[in-house]
Description:
Oligomer: heterodimer
Shape of chain B: globular
Largest interface: A-B, 39 and 52 residues
Number of strands of chain A: 9
Structural class of chain A: mainly beta
Largest sheet of chain B: 14 strands, antiparallel, barrel
Number of helices of chain B: 5
Distance between the termini of chain B: 20 Å
Distance between the termini of chain A: 30 Å
Order of helices and strands of chain A: EEEEEHEEEE
Mean pLDDT of chain A: 94
Number of helices of chain A: 1
Strand order of the largest sheet of chain B: 1-2-3-4-5-6-7-8-9-10-11-12-13-14
Low-confidence stretches of chain A: none
Strand content of chain B: 35-45%
Helix content of chain A: under 10%
Amino acid sequence: MAVALDTSYHVGNAPISLTIVIGDAQLGDSIVSLNRKVVGQGDIGDLVIGDGADLRGQTLSIKSVVTDVNDKTNNTSIRYLLKGGLGNGTFDLSAAVPEEGDSLIYRAQVHFE
Amino acid sequence: MGAVRSQSLLPGRPSLLGLALWAVPLSLASAQAALKLDDLRTPTSPGFVILGVEPTAVERPSTPKAVAVSLLSATQSGDLIPRNYALEVAPYWLARHPTLTFEDYYAAKLGQNLLQTLSISLATTKDSSQIDSVSSATRIGMGVRALVASGHASPALAQKRAQLRALQDSVLAAESPELEAQLLERMRPVALAIQGLDKERVGWRLEIAAAVAAAFPEDDFSRMAVSRVGVWVAPSYRPVGDSLDFIAVGRFTRALNDSADASLLDFGGRVRWQKGPFLFSSEFVHRTRTGTAGPSGSSIRLVGDLEYRVNDQINLTASFGKNYDQGPRAGRTLVSIVGINFGFGPVPTLCLAGPGECKRAE
């Protein structure tokens, strides 16, 4: 099962950074690619993607896997935080796993404009 | 998961016939994770305790699932019809928490910890209370409990997290949906093991709870009367690297019925030790009764328990000892119970997700 996000983010000239927060006390892992080149993997915190001017027109791809390790809830959630651009850079995705201990794959594409 | 405790096979007084069931899980999961005896145990809700129908007097503090339903049947007539019900809700986990990380959960400070572990329970029973004198009535108990301290992560957690991370890395590298699905399936037992380790925290834990009971004599709503209130604390300690638990309890209960004005003050403790499929435990509680109705005095409960896990779904239990020599059970103090617990899934819960999000496994 996969959860997908396809969105855009307006950038200026300042550096753009990405933070990924795995919520609901679950455990997750992510791989971040810019134009199919891996720029980060694992726990993503303030990962600098590049200068806004250089990123305009490019697409950031994020693949994350979130595992239900919390026996008090089957909810999983992931928050993408983009900073350095214009406007709101917070994107939330969430879904419940069908069975205890299941995992979900989250895929996000962010087009820099 | 369910538990059926049979009539005692030992000579003596009729024993308690207990039937405890969790809400039926979504599916009969086939996870390979090792099952601890604690997974088969029903945490005693304060709503049951205030009604005097708790199966043990001293329980190791545990964290609640979002919604749990337990059915406890206590009867001496031998039928299996559940007479007592309890519903326990952990309000915090009914909502999503997108910024609560796994590290935040384990390192929660006092306020956050209270929120994470707070549960509200509602219980009913049609049985006679052990304390007050109202009979032939439906009793309702309502309680709250929370953990002031939840202990520290089990030493085994780091290794399991590393194992899960390695599998997650493989999923991220997988390029076909089929390979992703295979790897996701391999992660489940590791995830369930990590879930189980939350119950294996070490160090100090402290649970606080309070409850109130009301009686409806002759099931007449207009005659409702608050019959009992209680507060208690239960500290426990588990040494690092051991399957040994030391649990203490201090509880004050007061009956408010005019004809049964009595207060109970309980102090006691329990020691539990798990070795492979065996769980040994022994509890001692000293009870002091004071009040204007009935004799005042003290009494003790001293019970030893042995549990043996036959397989993932079945474990055998045996309890023997002495119960309190007070109240309706005065003079009938023998505890001798042999029983069987049946589990209907490794980790039962009620699915609170929306339609279509809760599916049985193929």
